[in-house]
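Per reviewer request, we include the raw input and output of the structure prediction for the construct analysed in the revised manuscript.
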Amino acid sequence: MENRVLAVSKDIIKRIITNRKSVVVMAVILVAICLAAVSGAGYSDAVVPVTGLLPDITVADVMSPEIIGLMDLDLFIGEPFDFSGGVLVIDDTDEDPVLEIDADSVDFYTAGVYEVVYRAWDQSGNRTEKIIMVTIRPKSATDSDKIIYLTFDDGPSARTLEMLEVLAAYQVKATFFVSGLHNRDDLFKDIVDQGHAIGLHTNTHNYAEIYANEEAFFADLNAIGKRVEDVVGFRPTIMRFPGGSSNGISASYNVGIMSRLSELVHNHGYKYYDWTTSVADTAINVTVETEIGVLENCSADVICLLGHEEKAVTVEAMKTIIPMMIERGYQFKVIEAVTPEFHHRITN
């Protein structure tokens, strides 16, 4: 009889673990009472069936969704902002929880401090609410309504020092999204020491390798991050995808990987920056005049310009582009962790 009780008990414990429901404890008590009654009645050979004794019970969803990627914001008057950018909702059972953003109180044209409320809920009705503070501040007398971010990819290279000399001549700053292509890690320090921003681009720029899967992408990103940190003492949290987030070539190696990576980089603490305008310096037979013409025909108030500092034509074109944009009233800024992100439409 003792062995039978032990067997029955093991079966009950297994059901408790499987169903994960506290209500099963009541069934355990009832079974124990039945076993005791059978034993007390002298039915030592009685077999108490367990199968079917306990009801099927659906696991209750009691966990609330989690909202990640939130931070307080500091914006200029009139500066647009997408409050959904970089924000992700995850839930333990619901693959598509609902996110609601209440930003009605924010007046982008009046200085002040405002609350933006993020609410999320899952299909079981579990809710989460978080609040961020948004500070809208007026521009100072030195602030311009027109802003240009000069950004250069794929360096440092043999022409980095030449580009730095051009920037210094006009006393403007730029953002360098660096790589390991040319093995000029020593120039990371020159970039930072001269007041420019440094961001991560890629270690290898090998699309087939980088976009094979998520693990391969972050291995490449961490590799260039470590190289920068070893030289300048910190690891940048701004980055740019090889080919930009809109690149379609990644689909040749992993369908949908850009859609996944655009969320995962935020989960890893990074902000990613595409561009609004390119000088097209990777095109065949591009000329200095062609690059200058790109800016001559661009009238946007905010420009994030993509160039490659290892291109001789780009270094030369900057000698005309920079003074031209200064004359047109643009303020040159670097990309920082608080800079609103520039995103393309993701096609993979």
